[in-house]
Each structure stands twice: as C-alpha cells, then as structure tokens.
C-alpha cells in the first residue's frame, strides 16, 4: 500500500471516531505506525492541577499507564512546559534541554525503563483550562523525532481535531443505535446534510429552526446559503471536495465562525460522509458532508483559531490573546513571548478595539464562550 493510500485509510478511520469513540485505540495504533512511532495517546493537560491525563492510548503497558496516572503525569514535559501553537509538532528537546530531561525523575523512573527515547507532541486544542494533544513515542531503536515524522504527524492532526470537535458537538453516546441518522435527528445541535453542490438533502429539527430564522443560514432554491460570504465559501468548498474522500478535505473548515446580523455568534463543524462507517448516511441521502451548527456559548467547544478568524486578529494579536487567557498579566505574557511589555500593551489595545472589550477579564470571558475543555 502506498503512503497516500495508507494516509487516506487512516483519515477515514479517524473520522469514524467522531461517531464511535471506542475506535480510538485502534486508530491511535494506526497513527503510530503511519508516523513512525511506537506508543501513542491523546493527552489532556489540566492547567489548574498541573497534571496530564491519558484519555485514549495505544501500546502503552498497563502497569506503566497506572504509574503515569498515579505519579508521573505531574512530572512529564507536557505538564511542566508552556503551550505550543495548535498543530505545531515539537519534541522533548524543544520543551526542555535534553540532558536535563534525561536526568529527570520522569525519564529515569518511567520513560527509560520502557525504552522511550523521544516524544513527538502536537497540540490539538487549547483553552484557559488546559490543552489536548497527540503524543507519539520514539523508542531507542527509532531514534529521535525527525523531520519526516513531523511531516507525517502534520498530515494527520487536522483530521484528529475535526473528529474530536464533531464528536463533542453531536455528543454521540449511543454506539448501539441502529442507524446514525436516527440519533442525529434527535440532537439539539443543528445538523445539515449537503451534497457536493451545497444542496440541502436533510436537516434535523434544530437546523430547520436556524434556517427558518434566515439570519445566520438560509435555504435558497434548496441550497445552503450562509450570510457571511467567507463562511459560505468555506462550507461550499468542504462539500465539494468531500466527494473526493476524507483526505481531500484537509484542513478546510475545521471550525467555521458564523455571525448573525445582531451579533450572535455560531460555530460550524463539517464531517465528511463519503467513506468509512459514515458512508451509510451519505449514501442514504446522497450527501457528501454533515454540517453541525451550534451557538458559541460556554458549552460549545471550538478551536482558539475561531476567535482569531471571527475578529480578524493578526497572528501576533492571537498569541497575545492566548497568553492573556492562559497566563494573565502583561509582564508574564511578555516574558513568555520574549518581547517588551510595551509590545504586548500595543497588541492588547488592538484586541480591545477589535473585540469591543475594555478589560483583560472581558477577553477571557469572550474566549470562554468559544471553547469547552475536552471531556472525559
């Protein structure tokens, strides 16, 4: 099987986890094989308690997993280091000097006995409460994390993010349901199934309510139309490329911000329906993608980048915003970013102007409205 075929098969399996979370161990094992690692897991960092939990994992010895949960989760490089950017792939030497890592209790008592040499880490989501990330272990026989491993992880992580976001949006908890559509129709979140031309082929009750108001979304001669031009283009593009398979969707529309005329904010997530366990719904309705739409409230998970897109923030402004949310004060953010206090204050003034806020606390509240930490 070629690398592209392996990637397409892997991405298809990743999206199936959006409907059935019991598939994660097998999917994570496949991720490890594809990127050139041994063990792997989805980790969730709790900033307040300064610890990390392995919510899903593959090929980790149960004995060492218990030790990690009971003792070593607080000593590892993920728990003790600052955040990285979402989707950025880093390894141990970028989080802590490698010699220092090798002398640490985490390595000497936990990682070394397992033969672990290096760990690739990719942050999938961030919030004020913590972050979730993919970790892939390199053993001594594999060598250190290299550029090829980073490249392959970067091909997979956008799809992991989308699958996690969609799973939480639909709150899928009935794995024994006979059909996906029977469950999705009962959701409080708006669900639209669209074909490759953007035609609405199915809408649940919540989606019909949104369409009836005609503010953020509407139907025009049977086609989905989004009030915001950029969001409309993004969702149409997803529907069109999804017909080519899961891999074709790439990073498009992982989280698409939507705004009503009176300023209410929504977030849309897209799930391809053309391959894997999801194709039964796509085939039944001639649909290529499912669009999930929710109001941006405290119980609505989304990626931090949605805030940046919504308010047209520059990368520098978004970094300062994340720093304010995660750390707090201007001096601390300046130290983290390695810039002068005056630089942070300049970006902060622009953030206030763009978001219509006046205080740092208002910025934290605004970001909280776009994100919910990863649930167990």
Give me the count of strands: 12
Distance between the termini: 35 Å
| Spatial arrangement of strands, main beta sheet | 2-1-5-4-3
Beta-strand portion reads 15-25%
Q: CATH homologous superfamily of the largest domain - what is it?
A: GAF domain
Q: Could you give a short account of the major beta sheet?
A: 5 strands, antiparallel
Radius of gyration: 21 Å
Tally of individual helices: 18
Tally the structural domains.
Answer: 3
CATH class of the largest domain: Alpha Beta
- Secondary-structure element order, as H and E? HHEEHHEHHHEEHHEEHEEHHEEHEHHHHH
Low-confidence stretches: 173-178, 298-303, 372-376
Q: If classified by CATH, what would the architecture of the largest domain be?
A: 2-Layer Sandwich
Fraction of residues in helix: 40-55%
> What is the mean predicted local confidence, pLDDT?
82
CATH topology of the largest domain: Beta-Lactamase
Counting helices, strands and paired strands, the structural category is alpha+beta
Oligomer: single chain
Shape: globular
What does this structure look like?
It is globular and about 65 Å long. 45% of the residues lie in helices and 20% in strands. Helix 1 packs antiparallel against helix 2 and helix 15 (315-326) packs across helix 17 (341-355). It has 18 helices and twelve strands. The protein has helices at 3-16, 24-35, 62-70, 77-80, 92-95, 98-103, 105-111, 147-170, 180-184, 205-213, 229-242, 246-249, 279-285, 305-310, 315-326, 330-337, 341-355, 360-368; strands at residues 40-46, 51-58, 89-90, 116-126, 130-139, 190-194, 200-203, 217-220, 223-226, 256-259, 265-272, 289-295. The protein has 376 residues and is an alpha+beta fold. It folds into three domains: 3-170, Beta-Lactamase, CATH 3.30.450.40; 180-295, Beta-Lactamase, CATH 3.30.450.20; 311-368, Arc Repressor Mutant, subunit A (Orthogonal Bundle). Strand 4 and strand 5 form a beta hairpin. Strands 2-1-5-4-3 form a five-stranded antiparallel sheet, with helices on both faces. Strands 7-6-12-11-10 form a five-stranded antiparallel sheet, sandwiched between helices. It has a two-stranded antiparallel sheet with strand order 8-9.
């Amino acid at each position: 099987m070629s690398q592209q075929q392996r990637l397409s098969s892997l991405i298809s399996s990743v999206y199936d986890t959006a409907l059935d979370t019991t598939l994660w161990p097998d999917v994570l094992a496949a991720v490890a094989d594809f990127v050139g690692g041994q063990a792997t897991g989805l980790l969730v960092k709790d900033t307040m308690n300064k610890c990390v939990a392995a919510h899903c994992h593959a090929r980790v010895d149960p004995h060492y997993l218990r030790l990690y949960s009971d003792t070593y989760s607080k000593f590892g490089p993920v728990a003790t280091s600052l955040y990285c950017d979402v989707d950025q792939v880093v390894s141990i030497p970028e989080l802590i000097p490698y010699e220092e890592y090798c002398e640490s209790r985490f390595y000497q008592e936990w990682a070394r006995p397992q033969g672990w040499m290096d760990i690739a880490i990719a942050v999938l989501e961030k919030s004020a409460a913590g972050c979730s990330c993919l970790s892939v272990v390199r053993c001594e026989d594999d060598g250190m994390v290299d550029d090829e491993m980073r490249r392959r992880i970067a091909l997979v992580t956008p799809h992991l993010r989308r699958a996690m976001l969609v799973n939480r949006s639909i709150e899928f908890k009935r794995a024994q349901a006979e059909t996906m559509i029977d469950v999705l129709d009962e959701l409080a979140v708006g669900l639209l199934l669209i074909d490759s031309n953007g035609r609405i082929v199915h809408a649940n009750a919540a989606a019909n309510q949104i369409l009836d108001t005609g503010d953020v979304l509407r139907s025009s001669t049977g086609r989905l139309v989004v009030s915001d031009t950029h969001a409309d283009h993004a969702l149409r593009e997803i529907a069109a490329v999804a017909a080519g398979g899961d891999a074709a969707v790439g990073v498009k529309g992982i989280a698409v911000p939507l705004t009503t005329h009176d300023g209410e904010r929504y977030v849309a997530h897209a799930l391809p329906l053309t391959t894997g366990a999801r194709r039964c719904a796509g085939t039944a309705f001639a649909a290529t993608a499912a669009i999930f739409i929710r109001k941006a409230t405290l119980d609505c998970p989304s990626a931090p980048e949605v805030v940046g897109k919504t308010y047209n923030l520059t990368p520098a402004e978004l970094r300062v915003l994340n720093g304010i949310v995660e750390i707090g004060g201007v001096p601390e953010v300046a130290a983290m970013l390695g810039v002068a206090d005056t630089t942070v204050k300049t970006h902060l003034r622009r953030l206030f102007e763009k978001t219509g806020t006046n205080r740092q606390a208002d910025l934290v509240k605004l970001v909280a409205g776009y994100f919910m930490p990863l649930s167990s």
